[in-house]
Structures are given as C-alpha cells and as structure tokens.
Amino acid sequence: MGSLPVPRTAPALPHAGAPVRARLCGLLAALALAAGCAAAPPAAGINDPFEAKNREVHDLNRRIDGALGGGPDAERRPVPEPLARPVSNFAANTGLPAAALNNLLQGDLGGAVTNTARFLVNSTVGIAGLFDPAGAIGLVEDETDFGETLHVWGAPEGAYLEVVILGPTTERDLAGRVVDAIIDPFGRLAGPEASAVATAARLADSAIDSRRAGSMAGAAPANGADSYSEARRIYLETRRQDLGVAAATAVPTR
Fold it and tell me: Residue 99: which of 176, 165, 28, 24 has the closest Cα?
C-alpha cells in the first residue's frame, strides 16, 4: 500500500499580531483624517465651516456645565482648585509617557528626557502623580501631544470644532487626540485597569479645562462677542501661540 500524502504546509494559525494591526489601522485612519483637513487660512484667521453645528454643541456643553455645577451660570465659576489640582496632576502624569514619545517623534530629545524623569519622580515620590514633587525640583513638563507632532510634520490646522464634553479643538488636534489614545504608552505600562482610570481622569481634566475656558469667555467678553465666539478665540489664540505661530496673536471674534 502506498503511504498517505503528507501536507506540505501546516494549517494556518491566527496571527498573533492582529491587535497590533488593528491599532496601526486606527493610527493610519487618524493620519488620513489629519491629511484630509482643509488647508488652513492665514495664521490669524478663522476656519469654521461647521459653525452652526459647533454652536449647537457649545450650547449643549454649557448646559452640561450648568447641570454639573448646579445652576445656569455655573460655567462662569471656576472649578475649586482643591478639587481640580489632584485630578489635573494625575491626568498630566499619566500623559507623560505619550508626551515623551511625541518629543522623540518631533526630534526633541531634551524634552523626552525631561518628561521621562518627571514621570518617574511623580509616579513614585508623588504618589502615582497626585502630587508634583518633580516640579519642586525644576522638572517642569514639556507639554506636547500628537496634534503638535502633526504640526511639526507640516499637517494643516484644519477646521475649528467643538466636541461634546471635550470642548474646543481643531481637526488636526482631534486627530492627534485619537492617535495619542491609540499609541498611549501608559496603558501598556500600567495595564487595562489603570489605563481606564487614567482615561477617566483625562476626560475629567478636559471637562475642567473646558469649564475654565467658559469662565474666561463669560467673565471677559471681547467687543460684545457671544460665548461661542469668545471660547473659539481663546482656544485658537492659545493653541497657536503654544505651537509657536507668532502671527496668531489676534483672532477676530466675528
């Protein structure tokens, strides 16, 4: 009797890199979004083609702020510092590994070293980042994100957006948030449970920052501008100045 044929190839097994491919697909999708942004106007201008929808979201965010604060004018009152500071410290600390990675992507080795050292000090001596002993010894965060990385790489700012809870942003910065969430090194270092806590803290910190922006807009309107125009002006001026776009010192309120 002839021997049975032996298969030349083993049955295909599931590829162990599937989760990695999924993350890479998400990364590429976010990069495609950034690349597809409309070309930015002059640095001091406004690119707000979604203004009608943005205003609806802005009104919703104001109502959410009012509900959280217990009154219709709650957005005019800043969040108490004793409550905001530990949340902000913890959220900022969990974002330091991603900041260090973005420093490297931008070619900023010094910033990467500073952010890494700050993370190590505050995660240990600072009790998981609730306190900031690193700042006391001069290790100040080199703040950055993937939105800035895209800026360094030449991606345009895109249109202005207002997102539910998160507040003001732009197409480029929103794409940067997506990529930062996908590549977040803290989640890989600390595990899924700690990553979930960190995400909640960052969302809370973003909401607090949004309410602070609302407080600024409500307390200091420029030329009779409404709160939406003022919040947009504050965000665009601050973000552009942070990115070193010196010409963006006067965004019209319109």
Answer: 176
